[in-house]
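Usage example:
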Amino acid sequence: MQALTNRAKAVERKPMSLLERAYLPAIFKGMSITFGHMFKKKPTINYPEVTRPFSPVFRGLHILNRDEEGRENCTACGLCAVACPAEAITMEGAERKAGEEHLYREEKYAAKYEINMLRCIFCGLCEEACPKDAIYLSETFAPANFQRKGFIYGKEDLLIPNPVTEPEAFAKAKGERGKNK
Amino acid sequence: MLLSIDSFLILEKLVLIVVVVMSSLVIAMYATYAERKVAAVMQDRRGPNRAGPSGIFQPLADGLKLFFKEEIIPDFSSKFLFILGPCLAMLTAMMTGAVIPWGNKIHFFDRDIPLQIADINIGILYVFGVVSMGVYGIMIGSWASNNKFSLMGGLRAASQIISYELAMGIALIALLMTSGTLSLKEIVEQQQAHWYSWNIIKQPLGFLIFLICAFAECNRTPFDLAEAENELIGGYHTEYSSMKLGFYLFAEYINMFLSGSVMVSLFFGGYDIPFVNDAALADNIGVNWIALIHTALFFFKAACFLFLFMWVRWTIPRFRYDQLMNLGWKILIPLALLNMLVTGAVILFQQNNWHF
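Running the assembly step on the lines above writes:
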């Protein structure tokens, strides 16, 4: 049979020499290799204690942003829901009443804002569509739940902590990337 | 009185038995942990590190898990033998420890207490007898399971242990010819004189054969055909669950530790401190302290053998069955016979002052 390439090598089938038949040299060689591996650096990352650093464009779970005074940015314009290719976002708008100026930045706000995390494909198009800087994809990921309804995140799950009343939680939620902005 | 019973002797032996059994259990427990750690570091992993600091309580968690698992006795098994199997495996594994000299002696309450449960003059024969009884645990368990895979595992274990015991015995005969005694205590004491009086120097080939056979006797890789999981599901313990399975696994580790101890006693000077005159040191720091050092050193040497067992396990693949039998019958037994003949000839020449 003609070889297809010139890289083919014939398999040697000559009988083993006495040294090879004694097995022991080969065994010692193998044992030296495994012994050497004891001193190699372990690539494992101890996950819950240590996390792998994310790239700056990592897209995790969403957060709904607030401004410096702690007011919600979202105006329930619906652009994110329109942009969403997976149709994961639903919302209901409401008008701001007098005396709620410290809660919502503009006259209209989202009374209900839900993202179905099982539908979401974390493409980040909502983030790009938002004219009010209201929705961001954060560094948190790996949600776990026992029930499907637990994956429909409402406003209480999505809203970033208030920077005025809970500055530490706000900084934590904003993550490493927030510092660069 | 001729038949006066020395109650203190019984007490001291009882304490010694409890200590030896407990410590070999604890060592077997931590051998399972060490096995997983050694496997991990050799494969560039971290190994168990969740239970306690760096996973130090992992064996407790494993034991607890085994205890709380459902105890299943198959309907078609012979129930008595099914339970007897793991008991026998565990019993024979523990019995070997009785003749091993863990240290010289300690001095308490105006008594010299030897750190050996029974210094019988056929010590090493006793070890061989108990070890060959150990295969009954596997055979009975595998037969009682009424499962062809278990039975095949048991058959493999039995034939392998029988084949390798021959070479092991013949390798040992050469050693016994040089030492002239069967008592483990005397064999150890003979090796105390110089660092070069260790039997490994006198009988390197004998040690190599003994070591290979010890691997086979313990059913360890590369001779673990009895539990070849890709051919026989789980081997002889396929049908076992809960702590009965735990007993089988445990017995393997105790066997490993005790065969390491036997090899230390036979070939590596037992509790002898190398390059040190033990008797002079004993005069300096007292009998009890030297006994402590001796015992610690003995355990260290045995632990080195445990590490060797694990190191080999995570390096070498398993032998095929015909390779196993070829190695046992066609290589090891002739080599052991040759070693015995050469040793005998050398001893004869030596007695004859090197005249032919």
